Amino acid sequence: MDLSKKFNKQVYKIAVSTIRQFDEQVTDIEGIIKLTLGEPDFNTPEHIKKSAHDAINNNFSHYSGMAGLTDVREAATFFMKEKYGVSYQPASEVLVTVGATEAISASLLSILEPGDKVLMPAPIYPGYEPVITLAQAEPVYIDTRPNNFVLTPEMIEAAMAEHGDQVKAIILNYPSNPTGVTYNRDEVKAIADVLKNYSIFVISDEIYSELTYEDQHVSIAEFIPEQTILINGLSKSHAMTGWRIGFIFGPESLIGEIIKVHQYLVTAASTISQKAAVRALVEGMNDAAAMKEEYRERRDFVYEQMTSFGFDVARPNGAFYIFAKIPTGYEQDSMKFCVDLAQQQAIAIIPGVAFGKEAEGYVRISYAADLATLKDAMNRIGNYMK
Questions:
Q1: What does the pLDDT average to over 3-13?
Q2: How many whole angstroms separate alpha carbon 102 and alpha carbon 245?
Q3: May I ask the CATH class of domain 46-283?
Q4: According to a count of CB atoms within 10 Å of the terminal CB, is the N or C end of the chain lower?
């Protein structure tokens, strides 16, 4: 009996992320250096790990409520107020999720219906489109290449004029994966001033908010809280990818609906991880600062090196990625370029096509690796380009 053709038809329209596929494809190359995945190379701070040990010893091994433990929701709202000046009620305006990925899925599956459209600035992280597809909605990409990957109010206006009432939501991701671009206060306010004129959801994925290198991060929820479903988490800020703790912040009227989907996806986040999150958000509020300084040094080094090799790079001011245009005269098919680079020099970086057709001809480098590794990696890329 073959049931493989009887799945939900939408499942056949999605695939495993090209990022993961490529990472696995090159993993067995001898001596490979992988600058592929978006994962901090730092370990979770010791004081956070201790709080998890204490939670285990104190038998915090049972379900929490669907929205998460009261103390972690209080800590999360405290963190957001102190860091970014946005205020939420811990009892009704925040959900603890299984990472930002589940937060994205729960949010999109809660709001989307067949035929809806979702605006997204491109290039963009590839984790949104499959969920949109599963909901039988349609992504609409706004090409930001002409403005060095910065979304403008005019671009939004043009997309709304074209797609009109079919648009249910816009997804923002800043600092951006894959470009590292982010927005200053004036730019965020200008985008908010346009979006408040439309009755659409604003899903703002701000998971890299603690990793900005010039200006302080500004959340769009500061300007249009009634429209904003704000997503954040501890994976990038506190090097806690494996702990799987994310958050959804929003008005009670929105959170009250999203929690239904959240419940049936996961019931609740790990109680042990939630207890660790309390320590991260309060005592460890500034844990990202030391990591950020190291990332800044790495960014400057990789940016300088890649530029010297002839790549055109929009200087990133957030996250931990370099997004570089392959120089003229080299293979412009980014997958072929990266496969050949890996085979010839044992260095793996992500082909731009993983982030959509607007990203073809580019590559993404994660500089979440120590400086010695990055120097070796840059030597190998330099040798290849010669």
A1: 95
A2: 9
A3: alpha beta
A4: N
Element (H, E) at 142: strand 138-143
DSSP states of 186-201:
HHHHHHHHHHTTS--E
Q: Which helix (H) or strand (E) is 298 found in, with range?
A: helix 288-308
- Tokens 């600092």 map to which residue? 175
pLDDT (tens digit, 9 = 90+) per residue, 18-42? Answer: 999 999 999 999 999 999 999 999 9
Assigned fold of 9-43+287-385: Aspartate Aminotransferase, domain 1 (3.90.1150)
Query: Is the distance from CB of 352 to CB of 293 less than 8 angstroms?
Result: no
Pairing mode, strands 117-122 and 167-173: parallel
Residue-range domain boundaries for the chain: 9-43+287-385, 46-283
Strands 321-325 vs 33-34: parallel, antiparallel or unpaired: unpaired
Burial class (CB within 10 angstroms; exposed 0-12, middle 13-18, buried 19+) of 350: buried
Give the predicted TM-score (pTM) of the model. 0.97
**Helix, strand, coil percent content, the chain, rounded in steps of 5:** 45, 15, 40
Does residue 42 sit in helix, strand or coil? Answer: coil
One-letter amino acid at 100 equals A
